[in-house]
Amino acid sequence: MDVQLQELIDKIKKDGVATAESSAAAIVSDAEKKAAAIIAEAEEKAAGIVSNAKVETARMEKASIDAIGQAGRNLLISFRDGVVAELDSLIKTEVAKAYDASLLKKLIPETVKAWAANVNTDDLAILVPEKSLSELETAFKSALKAEIDKGLVVKADSSVQSGFRIGTKDGAAFYDFSSEAVADLFAAYLNPVVANILKEAAK
């Protein structure tokens, strides 16, 4: 009886140990699988973070390069506009200086005579700056006596600051020789040239 009891106890121990070892092995295996899954997931997340960081870094680098390029273009445009504005101002100033009374005394009679070859002088009007009217009228009395006798009119125009305009009395046709108009003609030619020089220099 004792022998059988002992055998039963030994069998229970043996079975219990085997069961415990099997359970332990299952637990360890499950833990290893879970650990491997966690590591794989962590590695995947880490790879995703690194990939996103590379993409973001590349995006930021491109954005920085684009911003620097745009800033450079803006600086060149601002510089070009400044040069063109300075040139416009210089042209206007110098043309206005050139249109002094002595030049107008020579230029206007020559222009009137050239115009009169195609248009009746009785329909002509000369518009001059208000400040120059008195002096020019005196000079034209002899230089343009024949044309004035035929109806040529010399009068002041507040819109003409320097230079003159010549045209029909009704204003239907005229040539603008004001300093502003002549300066605009020079600027229209020079500004694209200057812009192109600056563009070439920036390459």
Per DSSP E runs of 2 or more residues, the count of β-strands stands at: 4
Number of helices: 5
What is the residue-averaged pLDDT?
80
The portion of residues forming beta strands comes to 5-15%
Sheet with most strands: strand arrangement: 2-1-3-4
Shape: rod-shaped
The parts where pLDDT drops under 50 for at least 5 residues are none
The helicity comes to over 70%
The span between the termini is 110 Å
* Structural class label: alpha+beta
Radius of gyration: 48 Å
Q: How are helices and strands ordered from N to C?
A: HHEHHEEEH
Biggest pleated sheet:
4 strands, mixed
Structure, briefly:
Helix content is 75%, strand content 10%. The protein has helices at residues 2-98, 101-116, 133-143, 145-149, 179-201; strands spanning 124-128, 153-156, 163-168, 174-178. It has a 4-stranded mixed β-sheet.
In words, what does this structure look like?
The protein contains five helices and four strands, in the order H-H-E-H-H-E-E-E-H. The protein has a four-stranded mixed sheet. It is of the alpha+beta class. Strand 3 (163-168) and strand 4 (174-178) form a beta hairpin.
